[in-house]
């Protein structure tokens, strides 16, 4: 096994050195997950629910520890990190109720009785990116375990610590050894082995679109099931009839939360001509007021980027764009960058590509049709917002925008009780919501003849 130094992105110090799995050791973990699969699927639905509730309770007792670990490992603000740990607890609670409600059908047919069953897939592999290590892990392992699968989970190299701790807490909760195992390691070794190992029956991947495409191609070899949650370049569409104060006050957080390292970041801001100047004035004030500072402070609204490399990539987009204004950021150690707003005519690279940093591009539009055209002129379709007081327009535009998770007069995209996922190159499949277990089950149809 090789080792990896996990860094604190706010000050560049080493948080911990961890051991990385290689292909041989990940195979042993998958073998174990496969061996214990039969026993886990036979745990009664009520008992599986009880174990998940206990897991949720233990996570709840460790919210502060998990949150502090995420601040040190990922540079998330303490406020966000507490929410993220709480989200793992809530997802576990929500899906703890699911095993007893994973109900098949009885379908009227001639000559007998027809029943459907939801069967677990077997070993499910979850691959997590570095931007939201806890919630994205939970959205996978919560419903996957509830549906009776065993789970192997690979955190991102840069951010393994909270996932590793969650693996320990699952054992404390009484989830049997081998049912949920966290396997830190590289994408090309552990991640790729999840795709090629035949005992893994599904890969649930969240990450960049290029790696997602590679995983889909690899999975095709064995017709392995995939859920892919990929990149985004979401539009924040502000119509002239909107509550402009509210839209402008919320716009910085809609893109700069988590330093813009958010697949749902509304990084394309579309503003109707007639209110463009008024919006920009208010938006500038809001951006300049953002508290970009030490993420351990409860006042902090934005922390650093995850790595020096990520900051370089983000800066390269800014260098070739027209900057309208900037917020502030600390100087010195840490991968800090000030929130930056650029203007665009819609044709530049910064407006079209996912940047994954604290930068936003603003473009003007004249009418509803043009707003929809610009919003849809993207290979991505993950989230987005529409700001208007006209409810007819809100619904028309919401139906016309090709994206998976939209908000009207709000910038929130994610609730554990509602489905989440992307159109187009933002992914395949949905996570969360009442139907999440379907993505971790095979539907089996059984016909029983009643003929004499
Ligand atoms: P990434 O694709 O580089 O890595 C994601 C994960 O895949 C990591 O764990 C990585 O080690 C692993 N990986 C890398 N190469 C692999 C391979 N060949 N085979 C298997 N696994 C491999 O993405 P990232 O830079 O960690 O995360 C940022 C990206 O994630 C952004 O594009 C962002 O939009 C996307 N994202 C999407 C969502 C969503 O829900 N749609 C949520 C968060 C992040």
Your description of this structure?
- By secondary structure, this protein is an alpha/beta fold.
- The protein has 2 domains: about 1-230 and about 425-450, 3-Layer(aba) Sandwich (Aldehyde Dehydrogenase, Chain A, domain 1), CATH 3.40.605.10; about 235-415, Aldehyde Dehydrogenase, Chain A, domain 2 (3-Layer(aba) Sandwich), CATH 3.40.309.10.
- It has 15 helices and 20 strands.
- The strands form 5 sheets. A 7-stranded mixed beta sheet has the order 12-13-14-11-10-16-17, sandwiched between helices. The chain has a 6-stranded mixed beta sheet with strand order 7-6-5-8-9-19, with helices on both faces.
- Helix 1 packs parallel to helix 8 and helix 10 (about 245-255) crosses helix 11 (about 275-290).
- The longest helix is centred in the first third of the chain and has 19 residues, at about 80-95.
- Nicotinamide-adenine-dinucleotide binds near residues 131, 156, 207 and 356.
Give the topology:
Elements: E1 2-7, E2 14-20, H1 23-35, H2 37-42, H3 45-61, H4 63-74, H5 78-96, E3 106-109, E4 112-120, E5 123-127, H6 133-146, E6 150-154, H7 161-172, E7 180-182, H8 187-196, E8 200-206, H9 209-220, E9 225-229, E10 235-238, H10 244-256, E11 268-272, H11 276-289, H12 308-319, E12 322-326, E13 340-343, H13 349-352, E14 359-365, H14 368-376, E15 380-381, E16 383-387, H15 391-400, E17 405-408, E18 423-424, E19 427-428, E20 441-449
Parallel strand pairs: 5-6, 5-8, 6-7, 8-9, 10-11, 10-16, 11-14, 13-14, 16-17
Antiparallel strand pairs: 1-2, 3-4, 4-20, 9-19, 12-13, 15-18
Helix pairs in contact: 1-8, 3-5, 4-5, 4-7, 5-6, 10-11
The protein binds nicotinamide-adenine-dinucleotide.
Residues 127-132, 136, 154, 156-157, 187-188, 191-192, 206-208, 211, 214-215, 229-232, 263, 354, 356, 382, 422, 426-427 line the site of nicotinamide-adenine-dinucleotide.
């Amino acid at each position: 096994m090789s080792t990896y130094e996990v860094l604190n992105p706010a000050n560049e110090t080493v948080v911990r050195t961890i051991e990385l799995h290689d292909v041989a050791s990940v195979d042993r973990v998958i073998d174990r997950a496969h061996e214990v699969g039969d026993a886990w699927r036979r745990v009664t639905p009520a008992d599986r629910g009880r174990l998940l509730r206990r897991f949720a309770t233990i996570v709840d007792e460790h919210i502060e520890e998990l949150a502090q670990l995420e601040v040190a490992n990922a540079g998330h603000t303490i406020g966000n990190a507490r929410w993220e740990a709480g989200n793992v607890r809530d997802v576990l609670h929500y899906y703890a109720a699911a095993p007893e409600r994973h109900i098949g059908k009885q379908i009227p047919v001639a000559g007998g009785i027809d029943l459907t069953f939801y069967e677990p897939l077997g070993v499910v592999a979850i691959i997590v990116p570095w931007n939201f290590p806890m919630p994205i892990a939970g959205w996978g392992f919560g419903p996957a375990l509830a549906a009776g699968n065993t789970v192997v989970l690979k955190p991102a190299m840069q951010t393994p610590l909270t996932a590793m701790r969650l693996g320990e807490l699952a054992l404390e909760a009484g989830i049997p050894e081998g049912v949920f195992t966290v396997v830190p390691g590289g994408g090309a070794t552990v991640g790729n082995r999840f795709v090629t190992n035949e005992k893994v029956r599904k890969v649930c991947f969240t990450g960049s679109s290029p790696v997602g495409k590679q995983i889909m191609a690899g999975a095709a070899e064995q017709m392995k099931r995939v859920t892919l949650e990929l990149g985004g370049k979401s539009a924040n569409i502000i119509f002239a009839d909107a509550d402009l104060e509210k839209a402008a006050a919320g716009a910085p957080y809609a893109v700069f939360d988590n330093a813009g390292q958010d697949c749902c970041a509304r990084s394309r801001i579309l503003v109707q001509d007639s209110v463009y100047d008024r919006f920009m004035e208010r938006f500038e004030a809001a951006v300049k007021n953002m508290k970009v500072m030490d993420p351990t402070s409860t006042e902090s609204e934005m922390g650093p980027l995850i790595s020096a490399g990520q900051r370089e990539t983000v800066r390269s987009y800014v260098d070739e764009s027209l900057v309208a204004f900037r917020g502030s950021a600390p100087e010195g150690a840490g991968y800090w960058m000030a929130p930056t707003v650029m203007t665009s005519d819609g044709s530049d690279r910064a407006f079209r590509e996912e940047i994954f940093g604290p930068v936003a591009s603003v473009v003007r539009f004249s009418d509803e049709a043009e707003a929809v055209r610009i919003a849809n002129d993207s290979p991505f379709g993950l989230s987005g917002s529409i700001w208007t007081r006209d409810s007819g327009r809100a619904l028309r535009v919401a139906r016309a925008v090709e994206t998976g998770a939209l908000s009207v007069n709000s910038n929130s995209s994610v609730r554990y009780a509602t489905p989440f996922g992307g159109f187009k190159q933002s992914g395949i499949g949905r996570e969360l919501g009442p139907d999440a277990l379907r993505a971790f089950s095979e539907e089996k149809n059984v016909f029983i003849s009643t003929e004499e």
